[in-house]
Amino acid sequence: TIVSGGVAERVNFMGYALFSVLMTGIIYPVVVASTWGGGWLAEVTPVGYMDFAGSGVVHMAGGVGALVGALCAGPRIGRWEHPEKFVPHSLPLVVLGTFILWFGWYGFNCG
Question: Does the pTM of the predicted model rise above 0.85?
């Protein structure tokens, strides 16, 4: 998810699980109720609120959640002190993952 990338190597599993429950149980439903299905944001402009396939709400909520999570968790302490301990990933697996995401993205967005 967008949030997991923002807090990677900064929080433990329980912190991430708590953040996920808060995001999916409270924050995201409030944002969705404000936009989709004639929420109050639809009344602000004459054309209403337009969101292609929900991508605006999903990415806005995820991006703001990742930013808030990263600000609350703080920097990755010790991450850059010994860069030799962080070896690069396997290039074939990176390429394979890229193609899998690309294929899924086309399947989702093109129908």
Answer: no
